[in-house]
Write a structure and sequence with these properties.
- By secondary structure, this protein is of the alpha/beta class.
- The chain contains 11 helices and 13 strands.
- The strands form 4 sheets. Strands 3-2-1-4-5-6-11 form a 7-stranded parallel sheet, sandwiched between helices.
- Helix 1 crosses helix 8, helix 3 runs parallel beside helix 5 and helix 5 packs parallel to helix 6.
- The chain is globular, with a radius of gyration of 19 Å.
Amino acid sequence: MKVIVTGCAGFIGMHVCERLLARGDEIVGIDNLNDYYDVSLKEARLARLLPSKKFHFARADLADRDAIAALFETHRPQRVINLAAQAGVRYSLQNPHAYIDSNVVGFLNILEGCRHASVEHLVYASTSSVYGGNTRMPFSEHDNVDHPISIYAATKKANELMAHTYSHLFSLPTTGLRFFTVYGPWGRPDMALFLFTRAILEDRPIDIFNHGKMRRDFTFIDDIVEGVIRVIDRAPLPNPEFAAETPDPATSWAPYRVFNIGNHQPVELLTYIETLEKALGKVARKNFMPMQDGDVAATHADTAELQTLTGFVPETSVADGIQRFVDWYAAYYG
């Protein structure tokens, strides 16, 4: 099977490519290698993929309509996994245009590529951030998500709406995956675990928002990848029981679905930090701060729908996941 994977030099993208290559798929990896964070880390991830004869790399920006159209025309993939995006809640308050360019314009170009290449299944990254102002826990795909509180979240909600439109108009099977706080080896330097680890080792204080009163459904990278791999082989079908009078946001009369992928075991942020301190053998200096704009106090994934479809339940404990990240960090940065 030939699969286009966008964001192949990214944190999740590299791991997904490695799993697809291990099972024998041919991968066309797309990435623009932008400088949102350390480009050398992206290049190091890419270097793990390039030796494979079944991996083909194309440096391109999703917002480049002609380049993306040409890649789809040349390679004619059976399936597509869209993981490229401008990420980060807080950065979206500073540079909202980057999110529209990458996450909206870029995603439209992916949808058009899939449409014209008759792709069998498009799987794309959404986010737990779409739940926005929702406070009922755990977050369910069947809940309304019309109240985003950041531009990042709004663009991801837009992706889900755009995907549904293409599923309806062109019978393009699409599946959106709402990732919950992904962490692990080769992670992004702008995310909490990476920031905390670097600061603690450099004896700098770590910023703890909402005065530490945060809960997150931290999900280890291997569990995320397992979910992606299981979903890509199960294209959605129209739901014959869909009722337009009482529409269910998780399904449709079209071949469209959204799923949560989370650990389903929220952890207090201070407990997460204590676990990291044990792994590093060093106590953090803590700088308690108020809640940041665009952030939420808690996340908790209801993963029953994903389990029903795939039989998959995330298994990696926070203690094991953090230790594996610390081991990688020590090896990579010496």
